[in-house]
C-alpha cells in the first residue's frame, strides 16, 4: 500500500522530513516574483507563476534529501484556476523528481461527493470511455468527522491505486482541545478517531505493517502523540507543528516505532523561508532550504533511535 512506498523513500534518504509547500507571495524572493510579473503582470496568473517557480527551485534542491512534499491546497486555490494549475504543476514536478506527494486538502464529505474528491486527488477520472489522472498525489489529508460514510469511498480508491490518506486526529493548533480533548465514555474524541483509523485501515494493510489510513497528530502535543503511537500500531502518522509552530525534535520522538519508523514530520515555513533568517542572498533560497532540511533531518534522527 501507499505508505510502504513512503517508508521506502524514508529509508532511501534516511529522513522523515516532509517539506510543506505552502507559499505566500511574502515568502517568495523578489527576483522570482518580478520575473513572473514581467511575463503575466501583477495578476492571478502572475502570482501563480511565481508560486510554481519558487516551488520548482525548492523541489530541485530538496529531492534526494527529503522523501516527500506536502502542498497545501488553499495557498493555490486563493489564486483561482491559475493557482490550481500551479498546484497541479507542483505535484507533477515533485513526482518527476521521485518525491512522495501529500495533498493537504483536508477534504470532508460523504458518498459520491467524497468519491469525487478521492478520484480527483488520488485516483483516475473517467471521460466517457477514457480515463485520466487529475492531480495524481500519493496521499490526501481528510477530516473524518462524518464517520465511515466519509472514509469508505477513499478506501476503495486507496486499494485500487496504491494511495493513502491522513485523517485529522489530534491537530497541532492551540484550540484543538476544545473538541478533540472532550470525552466519549472513557476515551477522548481524538483517541476515538484514532481507534477508527485502526478499524478503517484494517481493510487496507501494507507489507510494512502500516495501513493506508494514516493520522495527523501534532508535534505540539507530545504526550498525546506518544499515547497515540502506543494505541495505534498500524497507523502511520503525519506530524505537523514542528518548527514555526513550536514543536521541537524531542517532542516528535514519541511518534516513531521501535524501528524509528511510523511517522513523517512536516516543516513548512522553516524550510521555505530559511533564506530570510540565515543571512543568505535571496537567490540562494533553495540552498538555504536544503541546508535547513539537512539540519532538521539530523536533529530528528538523533531522537528517532
From TrEMBL:
It comes from the Bacteria. Pathway: Pyrimidine metabolism; UMP biosynthesis via de novo pathway; UMP from orotate: step 2/2. This is Orotidine 5'-phosphate decarboxylase. Keywords: Decarboxylase, Lyase, Pyrimidine biosynthesis. One of its GO terms (molecular function) is orotidine-5'-phosphate decarboxylase activity. HAMAP family: OMPdecase_type2. It catalyses: orotidine 5'-phosphate + H(+) = UMP + CO2. PROSITE patterns: OMPDECASE. One of its GO terms (biological process) is 'de novo' UMP biosynthetic process. Its EC number is 4.1.1.23. The gene is pyrF. It comes from Acetanaerobacterium elongatum. NCBIfam families: pyrF_sub2. Residues 16-292 form the Orotidine 5'-phosphate decarboxylase domain. Belongs to the OMP decarboxylase family. Type 2 subfamily. The active site is at residue 106. InterPro entries: Aldolase_TIM (IPR013785), OMPdecase_AS (IPR018089), OMPdecase_type-2 (IPR011995), OMPdeCOase_dom (IPR001754), RibuloseP-bd_barrel (IPR011060). PANTHER family: OROTIDINE 5'-PHOSPHATE DECARBOXYLASE (PTHR43375:SF1). Gene3D superfamilies: Aldolase class I.
Amino acid at each position: 500500500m501507499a505508505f510502504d512506498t513512503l517508508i521506502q523513500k524514508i529509508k532511501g534518504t534516511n529522513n522523515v522530513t516532509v517539506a510543506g509547500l505552502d507559499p505566500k507571495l511574502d515568502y517568495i524572493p523578489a527576483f522570482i516574483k518580478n520575473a513572473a510579473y514581467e511575463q503575466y503582470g501583477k495578476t492571478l496568473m502572475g502570482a501563480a507563476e511565481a508560486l510554481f517557480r519558487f516551488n520548482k527551485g525548492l523541489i530541485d534542491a530538496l529531492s534526494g534529501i527529503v522523501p516527500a512534499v506536502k502542498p497545501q491546497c488553499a495557498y493555490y486555490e486563493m489564486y483561482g484556476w491559475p493557482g490550481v494549475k500551479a498546484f497541479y504543476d507542483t505535484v507533477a514536478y515533485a513526482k518527476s523528481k521521485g518525491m512522495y506527494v501529500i495533498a493537504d486538502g483536508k477534504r470532508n464529505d460523504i458518498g459520491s461527493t467524497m468519491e469525487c474528491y478521492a478520484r480527483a486527488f488520488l485516483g483516475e477520472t473517467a471521460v466517457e470511455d477514457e480515463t485520466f489522472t487529475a492531480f495524481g498525489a500519493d496521499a490526501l489529508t481528510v477530516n473524518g468527522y462524518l464517520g465511515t460514510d466519509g472514509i469508505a469511498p477513499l478506501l476503495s480508491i486507496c486499494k485500487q491505486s496504491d494511495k493513502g490518506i491522513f485523517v485529522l486526529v489530534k491537530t497541532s493548533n492551540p484550540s484543538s482541545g476544545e473538541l478533540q480533548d472532550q470525552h466519549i465514555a472513557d476515551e477522548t474524541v481524538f483517541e476515538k478517531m484514532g481507534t477508527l483509523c485502526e478499524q478503517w485501515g484494517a481493510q487496507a494493510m501494507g507489507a510494512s505493517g502500516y495501513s493506508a489510513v494514516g493520522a495527523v497528530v501534532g508535534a505540539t502535543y507530545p504526550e498525546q502523540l506518544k499515547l497515540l503511537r502506543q494505541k495505534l500500531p498500524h497507523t502511520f502518522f503525519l506530524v505537523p507543528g514542528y518548527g514555526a509552530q513550536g514543536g521541537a525534535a524531542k517532542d516528535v520522538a514519541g511518534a516513531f516505532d521501535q524501528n524509528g519508523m511510523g511517522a513523517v514530520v512536516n516543516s513548512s515555513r522553516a524550510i521555505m523561508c530559511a533564506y530570510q533568517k540565515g543571512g543568505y542572498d535571496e537567490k540562494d533560497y533553495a540552498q538555504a532550504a536544503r541546508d535547513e532540511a539537512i539540519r532538521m533531518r539530523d536533529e530528528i534522527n538523533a531522537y528517532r533511535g
